[in-house]
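I am going through a labmate's work and have reached the protein record below. What it holds is a sequence and that sequence's fold in token form. Please read both lines and tell me whether the tokens look consistent with the sequence. Do not assume that whoever made the record got everything right. Thanks in advance; the entry in question is below.
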Amino acid sequence: MTYLVNGLYIVAFAMFIYGLMGLTGPKTAVRGNQIAAVGMAIAVIATLISVRHTSNWILIVAGLVVGVALGVPPAKFTKMTEMPQLVAAFNGVGGGTVALIAWAEFLDTKGFSRVAEQPNVHIIIGSLFAAVIGSVSFWGSLIAFGKLQEILPGRPLGVGKLQQPLNLILLVGAIACAVVVGLGASKDGVPQAWMIGVLVLAGVLGLMVVLPIGGADMPVVISLLNALTGLSAAAAGLALNNTAMIVAGMIVGASGTILTNLMAKAMNRSIPAIVAGGFGGGGTAPGASGGEQKQAKATSAADAAIQMAYANQVIVVPGYGMAVAQAQHAVKEMAGLLETKGVEVKYAIHPVAGRMPGHMNVLLAEAEVSYDAMKEMDDINGEFARTDVVLVIGANDVTNPAAREDSSSPIYGMPVLNVDQAKSVIVLKRSMNSGFAGIDNPLFYADTTSMLFGDAKKSVGEVTEELKAL
């Protein structure tokens, strides 16, 4: 039976990796996700086979039923605009589960007394590591969810200069409690209060680490917390001697770490700088530029249509505003009309546009936009200077020229799309409100920029109707 379980685990791991490979492109992403899901089902079956002699089948079945009941409806009915929140929530659940597994292992071994006299130190270390990291991930993910859902303000929330000393105290306290538990394991076990101290201090640390991080850094935070959840799952797998958890956790941890590093580089930020406190909260007065007040110029759908119809190249810059309005299909239709008129249409994708990695790519792929038309920031930035019209759809922070020009800006140094270098810029927004980072965008007041106010889907539809009449 052991050979069967190990064989099923190997099949599951292969499907995890193959499915992950499929996520590298929109055309194969759905299939890759399905393959990975089947792999997880096989891993679950293998685990159930391995515990066939247990007497707790009622609890196991109940857990499976509750998990399916809680997991399927959100995944099926959550709107694409709310997918970042769902990712944060699901990631948090994973971290919380790992922390509970560590606590259960502590209770099951009577405070580690059953393993203290045996060569099973990996059980103690794995459980304690899982408890700390899993708890940080769970509570940190809750804050990320709250900020993305706008239950909490997107701006940094902290205690000022005391923030980092407080975080250090919490980290040292959690580690100290873990050391006491690890070193104090004996035939009599360790008082449960110390293990609870590990979980509580790590949980508060998770809250206090994410609260001071601003909205513009949330995509990186989600990726970082995802990596932490994976590492904690691998540690729990080590404690439980569960190969599936070890391998799956390491895959998640490694991929999440790589993605976090790539995103941090794309923002010209270091991960420690992000954890120390993110963008946001330092907004300027609307229209302020060198002490001079400017007014944004409004335009109409008809004028926008004329500009684009007679352009040689139009670049569309999608942002969270497009996601909220679900305007991707309308944008695809408008681009099709422009292409029939001989206009070349491209899409400029910033690495952190939207509120999670790949957010814009997924939306555009859903509307069957050609993957070749989606250009990454490094590939498209050189083309803005020779572009006739740029259509910005709800992208605020990733088009802000202050990141290049204003050293006092909270996002100074962050690579942005150079849309201000185009001959003409049309910005679709509901209002002049700032983006998720909470800062003003001088682009909106530039001489070459005009604003088309209203719901993005409706505005694009009106532009499309005007194009049909030309």
In short: Residues 280-291 have pLDDT under 50 and may be disordered. Residues 133 and 317 are 37 Å apart (CA to CA). The chain has 18 helices and eight strands.
